Amino acid sequence: MASKAVEANFDGLVGPTHNYAGLSWGNVASKSNVNLIANPREAALQGLAKMKRLADLGYVQGVLPPHERPHMPTLRALGFEGSDQQMLEAVARSEPSVLAAVSSASAMWTANAATVSPSADTADHRVHFTPANLSAKFHRSIEHPVTGRALKAIFSDESYFAHHPALPSVSQFGDEGAANHTRLCSDYGAPGVELFVYGQEVFNESGPAPRKFPARQTLEASRAIARLHGLADSHRVFAQQNPAAIDAGVFHNDVIAVGNGHCLFYHEQAFLDEAQVLADIRARLTGAELQPVRVTSAQVPLADAVASYLFNSQLLETAEGMMLAVPGECREIASVSQYLDELLASGGPITAVDMFDVKQSMRNGGGPACLRLRVVLNEQELAAINRGVILDDALYERLVTWVNAHYRDQLSQADLADPMLLEEVRKALDELTGILGLGSIYDFQR
Ligand SMILES: NCCC[C@H](NC(=O)CCC(=O)O)C(=O)O
After folding, report:
1. Given this model, what pLDDT does residue 3 score?
2. What ipTM was estimated for this complex?
3. pLDDT in tens, 143-174
4. Domain of life here (predicted)?
5. Which of 43, 227, 231, 281 could form a disulfide bond with 360, CB atoms 3.0-4.6 angstroms apart?
6. 134 CB less than 6 Å from ligand 1?
7. Is 426 annotated as a binding residue?
8. 435 near 406, Cβ under 8 Å?
9. What is the per-residue burial (b if ≥16 Cβ within 10 Å, else e) of 239-266?
10. Second CATH level (architecture) for the domain 5-69+104-445
């Protein structure tokens, strides 16, 4: 019999170097907001406010820590030498884009931190984690070692949790984590169907692929994760993303689809073969009927879906039905706002819409769903995790005070070379690992 389980959300706490560097070719917002002055303090507080509201609604809400940035070990690996100050000066002078890359706060988007398979689906009945190699973008490819350490520090009990290293960091095994992975089930504790969505089958050179923007996730990577996690055929479906959607700016599947329980909310242009995806899920889903909520291009054109991030919402189970936690931008775009009214009038399965202001993150292409990693945990597993990262009123207050004490309210590209910024970050993160009870996870602490 399946034991009672919950879906916990682990949000990335926005780091003190949050900035707009235009690093993500294929991500429309990142490119169009390059060089804007960022407000790291506001970004972190917006993220914390979202976490708090969901915790107050009764969801299990966790916090994943930001990473150490600028990342000096990466600069050393690239041949920069001397003191921290000398290295920052040299890289700012000779290769400012490298400085921007090693300074990005991109670890905030924890939907890309890892792929997680709940114990009800896996062969050894443990929860499996694989940090994403994020090999498509240099600034993100340096995240997985610290992500892996943080996950191990939180989910440390090996009798419940299995941790795999990231896949080989090459484009053929490009893996972007949970942003391309959705689990459908009748009940969280019951065996589910894990939908892996990929951009390209890379070893098949004649297969369909985007022409303009890169496919960050490969079928080969998705298959490897499913193997590592011990997912039998009855628990997994592989589906190709529509290449035209990638070329329209849908760089991850979670920009065009989101699922939870037996509900799949998606745009008609999300998948290369929509009918096959639905049939494959239906053939495997037990204990419930799949409830697709399909949005047409006539209702919401693809460009409006990308601009509003309608599908980058959190779909959350409530006592009455499903709630869609949307970014505020959804009410600013006429087609999307009208669609949301129609959705609410349609009588389910989505019965509520809640709005969240995460504008600082949105300007870099990260909505509510990008900011969280979902981990389904049964009662024993939930009891076994490190509770220091679970948000309650006291932790929320402590983190708000911490942000206000350590974060700047303005950050430009030029500021990244400021040696004071590095000092501020280290001081803040050293304090944070104490607050969250994580031990020494950062390179500067080792
Ligand atoms: N899931 C949302 C991820 C957004 C992220 N943006 C960035 O890294 C932009 C950073 C910048 O341009 O400064 C990305 O594209 O991977």
Report:
1. 61
2. 0.99
3. 999 999 999 999 999 999 999 999 999 999 99
4. Bacteria
5. 43
6. no
7. no
8. no
9. bbbbbebbbbbbbbbbbbbbbbbbbbbb
10. 5-stranded Propeller (3.75)
pLDDT tens-place string over residues 95-139 = 999 999 999 999 999 999 999 999 999 999 999 999 999 999 999
How many angstroms separate the CA atoms of 16 and 173, rounded?
Answer: 31
State the pLDDT at residue 348: 87
Residue of 23, 135, 137, 181 to mutate, ligand 1, most atoms within 8 A of C-beta: 23
pLDDT score recorded for residue 21? 97
Cα gap 291→418, rounded to integer Å: 52
Is the distance from the beta carbon of residue 130 to the nearest atom of ligand 1 less than 6 Å? no
Dihedral sign computed on CA atoms, order 242, 243, 244, 249: positive
Question: Is any ligand 1 atom within 6 A of the Cβ of residue 255?
Answer: no
Distance of CA 266 to the CA centre of its chain: 18
Would you say 139 is a known binding-site residue? yes
Q: Which two tokens stand for residue 111?
A: 């939907």
* Contact assessment for residue 198 and residue 174, using Cβ atoms and an 8 Å cutoff: no
Q: Using a 6 Å cutoff on CB, does residue 69 contact ligand 1?
A: no
